[in-house]
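Interim report, section 4.2 (structural modelling).
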Amino acid sequence: MFIGAIGCEPLQLRRVHLEGSHTLDVYRRNGGYEAIKRVLDGMSPDDVIGEVKKSVLRGRGGAGFPTGMKWSFVPKDSPKPKYVVCNADESEPGTFKDRYLMERDPHALIEGMLIAAYALGARVNYIYTRGEYRYLINIMDAALAEARSAGLLGEKILGSNFSCDIYTHTGAGAYICGEETALLSSLEGLRGHPRMKPPFPAVSGLYACPTVVNNVETLTAVPDIIKMGGEAWQKLGTEKSGGTKVWSVSGHVKRPGVYELPMGYSDMERFIMEDCQGIANGRQLKAVIPGGSSVYIMPARDIVGKSVKMDYEGLVAGGSMVGSGGFIVMDETVDIFESTKNLTEFYKHESCGWCTPCREGTDWLVKVFKRIARGEGQPEDAQLLLDLCDNIEGKSFCPLGDAAAWPIQSAIKKFPEDFRKHLVGIAERAVVGTTSSPVATREGTAREALPTV
Amino acid sequence: MLNAECFFMSSQFTPNNPLPQEVPVPREMAKFSPEVEAEIERHLAKYPKERSRSAILPLMFIVQRERGWLDPAGVAYLADRLRLRITDIWEVATFYSMIATKPVGKYHVQVCRTLSCKIMGADTITEHCAKRLGIKAGETTEDGKFSLSEVECLGSCGTAPMLQLGFDYHENLTPAKVDSLLDQCSRDEYEFTVKVS
Ligand SMILES: Cc1cc2nc3c(=O)[nH]c(=O)nc-3n(C[C@H](O)[C@H](O)[C@H](O)COP(=O)(O)O)c2cc1C
Ligand code: SF4
Ligand code: FES
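Predicted structure of the assembly:
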């Protein structure tokens, strides 16, 4: 699998190929812990937040919220302890960049967290890692122990007045714990149900104290922002999407992998066909899910010849989103009905059960998908799926509900033919003698045909 | 338009089936060696004193490592250790898919079924495992040696298809690779590389 940068000098990935890149020694010899030194040598917390604001770093966990702004929401005068929590739950299907950042460069995460903790005045901080990434927890624990014995963690770091510690914490197999408020519930030892926002974690998070939750890649970007200066870092990308972004590429490309691209990289077609070396087995590109399973699917016709820019604005213009950067490429052999069914089963499994629209809705979606897959599809089923989505989207307690609806809505819209072929008319089936499903006996239901694109 | 099909509550939580499984009442409490107790202390020390409940998941993994699964005696131990009720422990245990509230095989084969793996041949891998082990996904062999599960994306999408054996990742799988792994397990020669600490 490829790991490297395209279209820019490797920044986030510049140490990953060094031997022993996970050790303190190699990290230090390659510019490591210089940023925290600079911070402690004379930057105020506001200076740090200012640089991060200038960098236009946007959260890499999926929502793309400006990191500097998030940090500035933490009340300075609060007497309560403050916390920085790293979101290493990485469970969005198609996403695996955080895994390699932590495996190969754990000290970059530690340094990023130290800088964040300094900016926010946090004394104790946690890295919440998904339970399946146990080997990464072990790597992080070893790196933290190394940092602690080198005086980079604990009391009076590098001789300054700044004291801070970082601990690992394990999840136990629940996608919803990647959602920041559910993550905090889980970190408090509860079931991983999301919490009402507001109050936002910045005001009332872990143990009802001000808390910043940031993705791994967001935090590992921070040391470079301090070293280069926020403005220079921003200029690597575009005005509204600063810096570089690490993409996880999977599926039917010849060279899947972890790719660092400058924000605004142009264009998606070149990325797939040249950088990822094109579609394997001489087949044709059919579709791409560019930002993890939750974002809209893009048909090849919206990519080829369309100069889609790989950044927040570019992907929205192209009809999708950056999300977590989980770039799933599908060739012509993939049935989009099947792929959407697969993802819907994922969301049903991961729905936390807290709110009715998502708990019941995802269950019904899967039931309908399964019935169609059994060969009992009917012309109005596409509309039935869309109605179910409509009853989930915007009506659920947390964004997981929307994330379950979006792939279906976009798949039906962009690939109606893949659905249509499963939705044989009842009349036709009566002829071939297939038994009809309970729905077929309903009277007076509007038999809407597939929506036209 | 809301279709009649959606009017019925989902069968997941119908009154006849209030919980996915029975909640056993613990009759004894697990005991651990001084070394394991020290390990547990180290985990508790990560969290504020009055927030020891935070350690519930890390401690559940230790109980599972020591006892094979989170058995009733382990639940009783955790309730006692964290000063919680038995139901508090159960409430958390039943939420998380990696907490085993039923015995699992010594070799837990977990094949990823999500999209990137699916389009790269996950079904072939699952079927191959099922055929070799003589069980379906979700089952354990009679001798208690193997369990087979289909799991959701494990962050190996670029190296699909994949499976996790215990906590070890095995990627870019082929049926031949799976055979060699399962052979090692059958002969009890497989060494787990990743351990819970
Ligand atoms: C269902 C759901 C799952 C999520 N999973 C993750 C995840 O695995 N990792 C992550 O960093 N953010 C995840 N997020 C986003 C977080 O809620 C949050 O926005 C993010 O951790 C903030 O960090 P950032 O600003 O650095 O991106 C998820 C959000 C939702 C709604
Ligand atoms: S939307 Fe789904 S995951 Fe979110 S709170 Fe509701 S049930 Fe839970
Ligand atoms: S889809 Fe299988 S590891 Fe991600």
